[in-house]
Specification:
Elements (H helix, E strand, L loop, with lengths): L1 H16 L16 H31 L3 E13 L3 E13 L4 E11 L3 E19 L7 E20 L1 H4 L5 E23 L9 E22 L13 E17 L7 E13 L6 H9 L6 E13 L1
Antiparallel strand pairs: 1-2, 1-10, 2-3, 3-4, 4-5, 5-6, 6-7, 7-8, 8-9, 9-10
Length: about 300
């Protein structure tokens, strides 16, 4: 019995010395560190979450993070109020992004034997996007509902020559109007990397947006010094329902020629239809649905090009 115990003790000491053990005799370096394993797993999950968050942030910046300054030509620019006051080309200047921008138009036209008309228009737009999909079908395509508020001012004038009317009537007609609208629509933005041709740019963003907005048109000043029969100045502050349709198609190349400046080009259509008098809400609903197109209109179709940053 003593011999067996001695033999067992010797064998156990040999196993301990060789680095193999059990119970309290197992070497600490051979025991897995459970806390370290759990910590490493959490780090991987946090890294994955961080990567996903960073991707979303980059996507949000890429969609509408760039401002543009563009110049363009509107052909035609039209203002119709009891007949065409202006129907000719005008120049356009726009600063901002597809959802927040300031747009100016100015144009002059000569007709007949010396009569002239001119138009000036300024419009400010602010808005946001309610996203339906940020990556539709896992593509770099975002689909959203744009919500825009617009406030604008426009002046149109007509200088009438004596020869055009074959009479003694000669003078100036001038209309000043304010417009306000709030509406929503549909929009999409597609981002295409340009890794194959990095010299052209880092990526190109394609924007498409349509917004239909009900609102008001206010004739704040109606001046007539022509002396023509049937003309009057009693339309000051006439207020009527209005409906605005805006369509934007735009392409933006980022970091053109490996610089910090990009190139923006696009097409914009805008039209406001309105009535002289504001009726009940049924009349407004008819304008929104298209059953009533309004008595007067103003609008333009513009192509433009410029820079973005």
């Amino acid at each position: 019995m003593v011999v067996l115990l001695a033999s067992w003790s010797t064998r156990a000491q040999g196993l301990q010395g060789s680095g193999v053990g059990f119970g309290n005799y197992a070497p600490k370096e051979n025991v897995p560190n459970l806390n370290r394993v759990l910590t490493d797993t959490n780090d991987v999950e946090e890294a994955e979450d961080l990567s996903e968050d960073e991707f979303i942030d980059e996507s949000e910046v890429a969609e509408f993070g760039n401002s543009s300054l563009v110049v363009g030509l509107s052909e035609p620019m039209r203002f119709s109020l009891d007949g065409d006051f202006f129907n000719d080309q005008a120049y356009m200047l726009m600063l901002g992004s597809p959802k927040n921008n300031l747009t100016l138009h100015y144009g002059e036209s000569t007709f007949g034997t010396g009569s002239e008309s001119a138009i000036f228009r300024i419009n400010g737009q602010v808005g946001g996007n309610a996203y339906l999909w940020r990556r539709f079908l896992r593509l770099p395509l975002s689909i959203y509902v744009p919500i825009h508020f617009n406030a604008g001012y426009q002046n149109v004038s007509l200088d009438i020559s004596e020869e055009d009317y074959q009479s003694t009537y000669r003078g100036r007609e001038s209309k000043d109007l304010l417009n306000f609208s709030l509406g929503a629509g549909a929009g999409a933005s597609f981002k295409l990397p340009l890794s194959a041709v990095p010299l052209i740019g880092e990526q190109i963003t394609l924007d498409a947006m349509f917004v239909r907005s009900p609102g008001l048109m206010i004739r704040i000043l109606d001046e007539d010094t022509s002396g023509m029969p049937g003309q009057s100045n009693d339309h000051d502050f006439d207020t009527g329902w209005a409906i605005t349709n805006d369509l934007l198609l735009q392409a933006r190349v980022h970091q053109f020629l490996e610089s910090s400046i990009g190139v923006t080009a696009g097409f914009k259509f805008s039209r406001i239809d309105w009535d002289d008098e504001r009726g009940d809400f049924g009349d407004l609903i008819n304008m929104i649905s298209g059953d009533d197109t309004g008595e007067h209109m103003t609008g333009y179709s513009s192509v433009y090009v410029g820079i973005n940053w």
